[in-house]
Amino acid sequence: MSPPGTADRLPVDTGLVRRLVAARFPQWAELPVVPLEPGGWDNFSFRLGKDMSVRLPGAAPYASQPAKEFEWLPRLAPHLPRPIPTPLALGEPGSGYPFRWTVCRWLPGQPATPDRIAGAVQFARDAAAFLVALQSIDTTGGPAAGPANFFRGGDLPVYDAQTRQALAVAGHRVDVAAALEVWETALAARWTGPPVWVHGDFAWGNLLVENGALCAVIDFGNSAVGDPACDLTLAWTLFAGEARETFCAALSVDPGTWARARGWALWKALIVMADLSNANPGDPVQPADIAATVIADHRRFA
With 60 as the cut, is the pLDDT of residue 1 above it? Predict the structure, then answer.
């Protein structure tokens, strides 16, 4: 259920992207292709000319993402307070590459590392407003959470065995008894509300900053309709102090949802600490610190 490792990723380079574009969209064949850094883990990303980007799934578990984004992003975009990717074309397999892929309109901005954010409190307010808007969109016909999006928006117990395995491996780096209390509280706080739209990876690398402010949100590959708790982990993975308080207050969700959100944040921190998942280079907060903060918040609000 975890994302594939490095050995499972397909070899994708600028030459392959040029061949795919030329074969499918000859009108763009002469445009320069430049890999993006960081390019993401689930997908490879390239800039195509000045105004477009190309996004290709990196392994089989991500193969359904392009068609989903191509269908749903244009429907979501009008309801959101910040730009999201605009799909322009859906590419087909070719040149030895086995999956569909997308061409999107280029969105300016850089990943939201703390040094690029001009005001953390305002950024937290804007990030929360984006989630509130997303969760307010009609979910009729939307894709359900499940294996195709690694259960983001789904039931947290699906990761119970993996979390306990990670805790056994990384237990020397975390208060095991306290972590288990956080985790078991999260499992007990089941979602009973109607499904809402979930981004699925609402993390610093998918929030773009320009002039210090949130300017766009990208990578809806794990989006689905379901439980919003997985989208709230930014409270501990990016924010602290007043910014965290602002983010939490602006979302106005029930205590059970926050309990599950702490479970999602703890799960990810533990599997990275136990090396069962790939860390994002440059993560603003280290996984051991995330786990400790989640535990502290649990003690504060339980």
Answer: no
Domain boundaries, position 256: 110-301
CA gap 242, 240 in Å, rounded: 6
Residue 302 has pLDDT above 80, yes or no: no
- CB-based contacts of 289: which residues, under 8 Å, 6+ apart? none
Pair of tokens at residue 122: 């305002």
Q: Give 252's contacts (C-beta < 8 A, 6+ positions apart).
A: none
Which phi and psi angles does 144 have, rounded to 5°? Answer: -75, 150
pLDDT reported for residue 283:
84
Look at residue 40 in the predicted model and tell me its pLDDT: 66
> Domain check: are 140 and 72 in the same one?
no
**Cα angle value 161/166/171 (rounded, 5°):** 130
**Nearest alpha-carbon partner for 54 in 95, 25, 96, 83:** 25
Per the listing, tokens 């979501």 go with 76
The contacts of residue 142 (CB under 8 Å, 6+ apart) are: 72, 195, 197, 224, 225
CATH code of the domain in which 93 resides = 3.30.200.20
Buried b / exposed e along 27-46 (16+ C-beta atoms within 10 A): ebeebebeeeeeebbbbbbb
pLDDT on residue 301: 83
Q: What is the pTM of this model?
A: 0.94
* Helix extents (H) in the chain: 14-24, 65-76, 120-135, 160-170, 176-188, 234-237, 241-251, 255-273, 287-301
Answer for the pair 231, 199: CB distance below 8 angstroms, yes or no: yes
The encoded tokens of residue 260 equal 């599950």
Name the token pair of 112. 């939201």
Cα gap 34→45, rounded to integer Å: 9
User: Under 8 Å CB-to-CB from 37, ≥6 apart: which residues?
Assistant: none
CA 133 and chain centroid, separation: 17
Claim to verify: residue 54 and residue 146 sit in the same structural domain: no
